[in-house]
Amino acid sequence: MLKEERQKYILDQVHLHHRVLLNDLSDSLNVSIDTVRRDVKELDKEKKLKKVHGGATSFGFMTFTKDDGNIYLKSKKISIAEKTVSLLSDGQVILMSGGTTNMEVAKLIPKKLVLTVFTPSLHVAMALLEHENVEVIFLGGKLLHDAKFAVGGTVVNALSQLRVDLCILGTGYLDAEFGLTEFDWEVIQVKQAMIRAAKKTVILTVSDKLHSVQKYKTCDMTAVHTLVTELDPSDPLLDSFRPFELMLV
Amino acid sequence: MLKEERQKYILDQVHLHHRVLLNDLSDSLNVSIDTVRRDVKELDKEKKLKKVHGGATSFGFMTFTKDDGNIYLKSKKISIAEKTVSLLSDGQVILMSGGTTNMEVAKLIPKKLVLTVFTPSLHVAMALLEHENVEVIFLGGKLLHDAKFAVGGTVVNALSQLRVDLCILGTGYLDAEFGLTEFDWEVIQVKQAMIRAAKKTVILTVSDKLHSVQKYKTCDMTAVHTLVTELDPSDPLLDSFRPFELMLV
DNA sequence: AAAAACTTTGCAAGTTTTTGCTGTTTTCGT
DNA sequence: ACGAAAACAGCAAAAACTTGCAAAGTTTTT
């Protein structure tokens, strides 16, 4: 097993569970505890995670529901959210997934915009309820403890009975070749159902997550109609997505 | 368990309840009181909380009035919540409605109690997700803007497919003659479905709401199995409920 | 193609951190 | 002021960490 693979696995685990034990890692990776220790030390130095006694945690693990510690990331997300909101129009019925970027969208929706929004995300639902003119319908199901996101058959089932105008997908890793990927199996089931239930799909991604691939695949790039990033649509970083029939915003 | 996890839990508890007892922490975290003491001491040094004799409080505890503004009402509700939590046992499947009293229950559930909870309340769901051992299933539907509570056919329908051990109804006005009443038609539809879906029903009511009646009727007193108030079960204020076959707590 | 230089990995010895336990001292409510 | 509960200090075992080193594998140089 390559060092790269190991470190990627470690990062995945940290992102997924917000913490890992060195012992567990050394166990599941079949390498000595020292190797894992060195890997984690490196990742810590690169600020990809936080090393702690006995293991590692993701950044923002300790922050008490206070958005992000990362100012740059946050301003990128707001920029994306502003662009996204401009795509909405009165009377639309839309789907919104979870994630911090979608949270910003939910907050930025104009007070007078009349919408019907379906969502499986507790946080997004909460933010949307601040808007009087937005009818919020929660897609109920088993809630994930970390993501506060409903998953499972109930959600997928409810989605199969919908046909909405727009689906706005928040978090996710994007690559021209591999499409949209995630590191949680249950989440991609829901996202796939969301895409099926919508006439058009919008993906929100901060440029950091472009050209990166995770374990599970949600959909191909061909399923996406609009890609919103904080970059200028003419930015060369987006070149690899131009062959697809999609709108860059 | 990592030290960071413990400290996050402690901070969460402090932020949630504005005070914690070291004994409770050591109990629910399954570590010695000394370890908790050292953790709290550290967090105090980092100005993340304020250590006091026997426990810790969050900063700005005295100025905190989000809940009710009414400190007496709040302490009544906490007392009710404590009694209610003692009715729960490992492995139960329960239903919880919304309301501030039920919120206190959600917060006070011991960390090691294993439960499955169905709820149509955003706030309760959110609070329950703080507990690792509680599986939370949200009953999805149209959300009421003020109550952050799901109502409508979807919820009632989902409830009709359930048969759970216990239903805990929070807010509500109670009267021996008129039973349980509410002022929202859509809410009582859901509460009625909740009662039907449960083997036993527990009502939580602060004594202020005893012997008061609202516009719409949820159910008769005969449908109630347990009544939890902040009063002593022998209090004369409860006399009018004694003719019914119910447990006073 | 062999040698040299470098990287990666696992091991072992020694150090530090963490944690629970033991008394002892301090604090608090009555 | 008294007894109980809480805080503290010191100790010891266990777990985690550090460092140095050598074997195995890679890459670069000659």
UniProtKB/TrEMBL annotation, chains A, B:
**Designated name of the protein:** DNA-binding transcriptional regulator of sugar metabolism, DeoR/GlpR family
Q: Please name the InterPro entries in this protein's record.
A: Carb_Metab_HTH_regulators, DeoR-like_C, DeoR_HTH, NagB/RpiA_transferase-like, Tscrpt_reg_HTH_DeoR_CS, WH-like_DNA-bd_sf, WH_DNA-bd_sf
- One Pfam entry for this protein is HTH_DeoR
The residues covered by the HTH deoR-type domain are 3-58
Question: GO: which molecular function terms?
Answer: DNA binding; DNA-binding transcription factor activity
Q: Which UniProt keywords apply?
A: DNA-binding, Repressor, Transcription, Transcription regulation
Give the organism the record lists. Answer: Algoriphagus locisalis
Lineage, top ranks: Bacteria, Pseudomonadati, Bacteroidota, Cytophagia, Cytophagales
